[in-house]
Amino acid sequence: MKRFVLCSCFLMLVIFLHAQENIPAYGKIDKTDLEMKDCDFDPGAEAILLLDIGEIDFNYFQGSGWVSESSYRVRVKILKETAVNRGEIKLRYYSKNRREEISNINGISYNLDANGKIAESKLESNAVYDKAIDKDFSEVSFALPNVKAGTVFEYKYKMQRKSYSYIPTWNFQQTIPVRYSAYNVNIPEFFQFTLLVSKRQELEKKTGSSQEEGTWYIMRNIKGLKDEPYSSGKIDYIQRLDFQLASINAPGYYEEIRTTWPRIITELQDDEDFGLALKKNLKGVDDILRTAMSIGQTSDRIRAIYNYVQRNMQWNHDYGIYSDKGIKEAWDKKNANIADINFILINILKEANIEAKPLLVSTKDHGTVSPVYPFLKRFNAVLAYVKDGDREYILNAADKYNPYNLVPYDVINTNALLVDKTVQTLMQLNGNDKYTNNVFVTCSLEPNGTISGQATLKNSGYSRNIRMSTYKKNKLKEMIEDNEGISIKVDSFTVNNEADELQPFEQVVSFSGSMQEGGGYFLLPYNLFTGLGKNPFVEEERVMAIDFSFPKSYVITGTFYVPEDLIINELPKNTRLIMPDTSIILTRMMQESGNVISFRITLDLLYADYIVEGYPYIKDFFKKMYAILDERIALKKK
Question: What is the pTM of this model?
Answer without folding.
Answer: 0.85
